Amino acid sequence: MSFYEDLQWRGLVHQTTNDAGIAAWLDEKPRTVYAGFDPTADSLHVGSLMGLVVLRRFQQAGHKPIAVVGGATGMIGDPSGKSAERNLLSKDELQKNVEGIGQQMRKFLDFDANDNGAVLANNFDWTGSWTYLEFLRDVGKNFPVNVMLAKDSVKSRLGRSDGPDKSATASDDASGMSYTEFSYMLLQAYDFVHLNDEHGCELQAGGSDQWGNITAGIDLARRMGRPQLFGLTWPLLTKSDGTKMGKTESGAVWLDPLRTSPYQFFQYWVNVDDADASKCLRMLTDLSREQIEDIETVQTAHPEKRMAQKQLAEQLTLLVHGQDGLEVAEQATSIFFGAEIADLNDEQLGQIFSEVPSKELSTDKLGGDGLAIVDALVEAGLAKSKSEARRTVQQGGAYINNRRVAGLEQTVTNADLASETTVVLRSGKKKYALLRFR
RNA sequence: GGGAGGUUUCCGGAGCGGUCAAACGGGUCAGACUGUAAAUCUGAUGGCUUAUGCCUUCACAGGUUCGAAUCCUGUACCUCCCA
Asked: How far is the CA of A145 from the C1' of B24 (A)?
């Protein structure tokens, strides 16, 4: 199976600018490909995973990937897929974000390979020093406004309902767009030309919402006398219910362990719907076609084993957080789902329960008869009042180190320390809190 | 400007002088079931050293009564109707 066929099988090809020839073109010799990333935060999130994984695949197949962080375009805001004008970020914020993102990319791309080492570029570097007049003369001149107006990304924002897809063009939220956003396309188009000049980049990949920007770049290159360039888009990663992948009630799922812990990250994937799991396996993991098909067979026969979700979580956590992150996530998972907590040290507990609230108490409390379970629950913040704590215990919903509390008379003593200083309390299925005794 | 009505525990909403910490529904929290799902079922749901006890709560402030969320007076806010 060729590289391109593999991409297709994985469902990573949505549209290309040359369906007939691109497979052979990619096989012919190593190509240079680029994809852009939005520096709206100092970390990437699951939404950006597709781009990273696609570039990674290209690199593994021998092609040279360029990750472009939009330091310049980020100052303007891509109107594609947005329904409203975007807030602009300051230069400093963007600089910080670009650095953070570049760091994360190292996990996906090899920047040191000899022949096809990945390149990280920031388009602010080649656009930041432009003057307005230069830009208008060199780039703007090559953009017919009527063509720009015909792009879906523009059309939907202007609320014109004469597009090919009338239903998607919600004319009732015609919020309009500023001249600044209108110009976004020109900047991204020029990126492609620049990368072709500097790195011989011939292919731009992006999400399907980037199609208009990609073709704009190809058009611009032609008008400016550059070679024929190519474009490829992947489908947007959506869930079977139509919503975006990588969002939880509490916000985006980030790749930065400080924003989304390895455990939470792992859990996100374990909880993916059955209907979406195998799609994600294909698109996002490095597993081979055979492996994935095996998993799918098991999944169909025994959905309750959640094989696809487990594999997905394991593969992606390993990729994003490394072996250590995966181990912590798995350990945390077994503990959060009932395994008894014992024989751990403070450091392990601290990692596993990093986002669990904790409270420090004096060691004295453990002496004598110990600390009454009801008081312990209140101290740990798991119950608002003693009455509430009492109810929880009576209903069998209180746990010390994942062992169910037998009754109201039970106390927390030295024997209950799960590590040097810490007792893990739990109320109900998922609510944990730590008591640290100093 | 004239007229009518409302304000209750997280929300909606009963309550019409004692048996009201206050029906019922929703939510929430526990438990069971389960695939770390959904649905369902069970229990709990003001606080207090769990008590046939005490304290705080029915817009706010006073009053009548042995006794008030319930009656009266005033204050604030809200809704509706007629101009």
From this structure: 65
